[in-house]
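Notes to self after the call with IL:
- keep both proteins in one doc
- input above output, always
- annotate only the second one for now

Protein 1:
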Amino acid sequence: MSDFEERELGELRVRIDRTLCVGFGDCITEAPAAFVLDDQGVATFLVLETTPREQLLRACEACPVDAITVWNAAGAQIVPAACEQVP
């Protein structure tokens, strides 16, 4: 299996980095229809199409190790959010 698993949902592109995922399951808590842990204890996709967009984004943001990345249609990364620099 690849180190990355990627799916598109409408204008969003969602990627799980399997090398970063440590199986906390926070994404599953937020969106149990979208994610599941596989037999290696790593997050994988279920059915993204039935998950409301905001719930999906919350689930991706919930990952404590930033193993899930989301880009919008313009190719801008929206999850994890870019850190703002304080002057």
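Protein 2 (the one to annotate):
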Amino acid sequence: MSIIFEEDIRESSVKDVAAKMMLAARTAPKARGSDNLIIALADKDEIIKIAALMHELAESTRLPHFARDAECILKAEVLFLIGTKIVPLGVDCGLCGFSSCKEKMQNPKCPCAFNTGDLGIALGSAVSVALNHRVDNRIMHSVGTAVHKLGLLGKDVKICYGVPLSATHKNVFFDRKHV
């Protein structure tokens, strides 16, 4: 048997954890059993494209944290992506600000509280897997904004987040420059 060094299997190990995160997000509880989530992983080539758009967004929106976060994701082995479609569940709860789901449907850009709640629960389940495997991560809305603009999770997905994953001697997603 030969010796296998950690650095030789680090990337594949992080990707294995990312796959487990996908399962955790998929199996997380969802309101009325309705699953509107889209879950994916982005590899290094796709991360470079996402980071490039994030740099553009930093300029066009004058939000410098997009550029800071773009630099962070370039240090990731893999990027966990999750988003939700906006599909009212027919409960007429009014949590979206409208009196009924029918009225909400006339305002398709307004999120359904249940869809966003399900997204948050799934995201929490996913990052708990990373935590349990000691893989460094950070939930980033800036990544989600770029992923949405690129249409990477499909045209029906309206709210996205990205979670870069890394396993190094120090968490590269914290101790960032404050902007």
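Annotation: DSSP finds six helices and four strands in the chain. The helical segments are 6-27, 44-61, 65-73, 101-105, 113-132, 141-150.
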